[in-house]
# Entry
Amino acid sequence: MASSTVSRVRRHLPTSPWLFAAPGLLVVGVFVLYPFVSTLVNAFTDRRTLIPGRFVGLANFRELLHDDMFWIGLRNSALYVLGVVPALVLLPLLLALLVQKNIPGIGFFRSAFYTPVVASIVVVGLIWVWLLDERGLVNSLLETIGVGRVGFLSDQWLLLLSAMAVTVWKGLGYYMIIYLAALANVPRELHEAAAVDGAGAVRRFLTVTVPAVRSTMVLVGALSSVAAFKVFSEVYLMAGPDGGPAGEDTTLVMLVQRTGTGLTGRVGYASAMSVVVFVVTVGLMLLVLRADRKEEA
Amino acid sequence: MRISRRTFAAAAAVAVVLPLSACGSGDDGGGSTDASGKVEGTITFQTWNLRANFKSYFEGVVSDFEKKYPDTQVKWVDQPAEGYADKISADAAGGTLPDVVNVSPDLVAPLAKAGLALDLDKAAAKYRKEYLPGAWASHRIPGMTGTYAFPWYLNTGPLFYNKSLFKDAGLDASKPPKTYDELFADALRLAKKSKGEVATLANVPTIEDFGRYGVELMNKEGTAFAFNDTKGVELLTKYKELYDAKALDPQVLTATPESSGKKFLTGAVAMNPGSALDLGNFKKQAPNLYKNIGITDQITSTGKVNMYVMGVMVNSRSQRKPAAVAFAHYVTDAQRQMSFAKKVAIFPSTAGSLDDPYFTKEDGTDETRVRIAAAASLKNAVNYTPVLFSEQMKTALRNEVAKALQGKESPKAALDNAVKACDRLLQQQG
# Structure
């Protein structure tokens, strides 16, 4: 009797965790895994929105190699990483140092710096478009001081730089909060010891603060590089659905959206591009983490 | 019950293979084209951003139809303008396309090719004579036989211009340009007089511009594009001159219809296409502009303006085809189109409707003047947008036009590239 109870318990025990996990697994399966696997499979077909595809092997990937727009998208996404990530690793740290001290009214500044994070990206994009327009506030100011109007939204490179500036402006507050948490864990004694040894503010920053928050910097670098490579909204809102003049500001994700949607969308081809985005972002993550591990060693 | 590795592997395999099952499983057949039988059952009717302004009109149409056919029920759904094509494509791909759908010819083409649009030449031929022949033909697809939507309302927007900007440049504000040659001359003069401060247009040439300039857009068979001919190159070369002279807005290469409209509102550009609906906006948002507003016909060198056509399509896989066809016809018949035209600045596609005094008699107001001029121009208007010209093709053309305007490519090379890209996309559409 006792042994049969034990065997029954053994038989049933493993089921329970699965039952508890089932709702979550179902959601993850349907909304995460299935679309992911579906994208992988579609990448090897010539599927279109309304017409089921046939297996075409590596044809989509071969076509990507000869697609000028793909290379433009890849270039712009890579440039975005190079332009945005260093700024998003350093500036929020400096900002966090500024607002770290508990002085009267500091809460206002912390909230002000965090406001762009919670603002809708569409609203943010529209505001910056108004500011940077040929007849917008920034150009009016530049004209007043004799610089003349600058084509922030009409020049290929200035447009990309403007979009990067918006990404940095919007992301500062988010990473600042992460750094604030990390800075709170830096022992005060280290700073005090360095100060006793005669280290100035810059030296204390380089020898005490930076090493103490290095792992947070790696995390911020990894998160911001993946987000930067997948940028869509800022460029879409500022450069328009075509991706700037002659599509020269198109990023990879914009290209995926443009290629794969609509009644005549090339779902298979867009999926192949998505696979490239996935591989590059995973690669970026691994690269950053590997670099971190090497330094630790 | 232990979940063994084998079970897990099998589940993973199913997850991988499941999406593959979608490949090749589609049914290209559009189902039966027989729409005879009793008009009964519940159908869904989808419109394109019409609920906000015409709720009571459509509720009336639905209620009248249900009274006429007591065994029917119509569920009216309206979708916003933004992303309408994406909504249709998601529904079409997911098998949830409504029974009756408001479409434009370029939306009908891929749906018809996928076998989702009912051929009305077979299913509803008896209604054909009620519509203008050109309107009925507007939903035919090159390379296919049949007509795939009832023609609904037609539209042809006027061109607005800022009289005071014209006067400042020493131009006669009572004689706006009518042809492209006149437009180019006036635009260069406006730019010169304002030292590049005032542009005439805030949009680059579209496929409709090529059509109105007299360029042959496609070959006769509808199998390849042809807008890279001498005339097409000539048009783009002239636009390049305008761009260099700052007669086009500096941000023209990233412009959208909305941004162009705003530029016109602020007086940064002198001319902008629009519709009679815009007059109300000008009155409200830019009273100074409204005082100086000039209204003229679309620029055309062919003598024929561009006409936009709306249609009502019947889903070929509808389970209630007789009711769907009857309702699609009901919404688009002469009586309903006429009453809709009196609510908004659109024009009926039904035979004889444009001869109604509403479209021919002046009453001294600007709105009536626009309406009468537009109705008159519709009689020989052309829908210059090829029905097979997809969104991806529009982007390809805009990108190549931008390269030509920036001087990165010659107009000829840019148009050759655009035609090549569009032909490739056309072939991929199948």
